[in-house]
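Can anyone check this?
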Amino acid sequence: MGRLATGYRRHRSTWRRRQGSVAVEFAIVLPVLLMILLGLIDLGRVIWSYTTLLQAVQVSARCAVVDKINCGTATAVQSYAASHAWGLNLTSSAFSVTMAACGAQVKGTMAYQFVTPWFYVAAPFGATNTLTLTATACYPA
């Protein structure tokens, strides 16, 4: 009976040590996994913001050529582009309109603000934690 009790105590002691090591490993790995997850979410937001900006300049370049009633002037085209940048909260000053050799050219620029602090220390983004997104579209006249 004494041998059984001793074996049980050893097993219980080993179990506690294993639980402690699992907690330490989890505490080390969790911040890394969370940074990867938040980085992927931020990357998705960058891609969504860029595609929305690109769609806004494409639609407004087409409007500048096709619809002279709503987009007859450069100011009207800029306002049209700002109204089609859904969810980005851009003003018409973020867009520029020129008549280039390819036709009506619209260029949109925005500063994307990262949420994940991981990018704050990375070299391409610097201390401002922003990335400048630029999209250009040209529609033939």
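Reply from J.R.: I decoded it. The radius of gyration is 28 Å.
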